[in-house]
Amino acid sequence: MRDSRTARHTDATRHTDVTYRTGTTLRANVMRRMNAARRLPHRIGRRCRRPVFSNVSPVGWMAVLLATMSAAAFVPLGWHELLAIAIAATSMLVAAVALSLGNTAFSATVEVSEQHAAIADTVHIQVTVRNDGHASTVPASGVLPIGTGHERFAIPALATGQTKRIDLAFTAVARAALPIGPLSLRKGDPFGLVRRERRLTERTNAFIHPRTIALAPLDAGIPRDLEGRPSGTIVDDDLDFHGLREYEPGDDMRNAHWLSSAKTGALMIRQYEATRRTDTTLAISVNPHDYANAEEFELAVSAHASIGVRCLSQNHPVTVHAGRRHASPNGPMEFLDMCSAIEPDSDDEPNLVRGILADAAGSSRWFITVGRNRSVEDARRMALALPRGTTCVVLRADVRGERSITRHAGFVVATIGDLDDLPTIMGMLA
Predict the structure, then answer these.
(1) pTM of the entire structure?
(2) What angle do CA 233, 234, 240 make, to 5 degrees?
(3) How are beta strands 229-235 and 268-276 bridged, if at all?
(4) N or C end of the chain, less CB within 10 A?
């Protein structure tokens, strides 16, 4: 009997617990639904307000303010002029909203004919706009930023699957890494009160390369890579024999010198002096205070670019430094793209060598390009920071100066007044 009562009690407890839990769950669900119902008008309001408020231009907000203030002032003053202003402003706003509506579900692509161009080249841009949707679109306008300017063009109404192509072109007038895009679609009213805008493409770049000049090969007077130059570092494998030492555990037996081992009775290992490759470092000052004017700065960039193109065309390893950018380009085109983006920076390190030596410690020749405002003493300080045996040429761009070469202990200062002087200067340095 006791067991039966216990079992019935347990079942009743379980039933009560289930009933309690079920009731709690139902009440919680009801509360959540009631809260969601209360929040629904607010969510609808936010979704309705977001496009309205985000699409109203500053001029549109001025029209709203004008209509509101005119209507509010009409009530106490009774001036019919104020009522007319309020009605006109409100009518303009309503018309603007109506004109900004419609299907604008376009897709687009932007293709640039020449992403690597020279000054005076014509760059063609093809904009293709498509209607990939299931309904016809309404007319709109496209805006394509090109550098600091903007190209605006009309986009007609397109049926489903229809395409519109717009051809644009511009002439490259100056060196630049020119941003093109992103293409934006705009739909609004003629008064500029309400405007819908949507990005259709991402930004791309067109690189307008600096002017360069052809140079003769830079190998004259410089050992080839395989020959190298002694660095003073003793290693176990290279080309320049240095001496012998006794065998140590782990040494490569291919370096054993058996004849000397037989004579001395101890195993002898060859040692070599490490050679330095003819790596080239190109550094250019981007501090505008180093140059007399923008023309002189562009001359320096052109000289810097010409030397780099010559080195890379000969497959010489090159490290380039311009301001905060340090890189090892893989070819002339990549290097010229870098040169297109060189911009003045007044925070540039005065001693170019000191700031970048850690990234180019293995270079055996340096070309440092500066402006006329850099003195010979500045060049000497930079040359002194270089390792011994390094070839250092400080190239001064001076649009008012005469072509000249001055040789100093450990470095050379070469002055060019025009880019056409550079081949002669480089020939004299060979």
Answers:
(1) 0.68
(2) 100
(3) antiparallel
(4) N
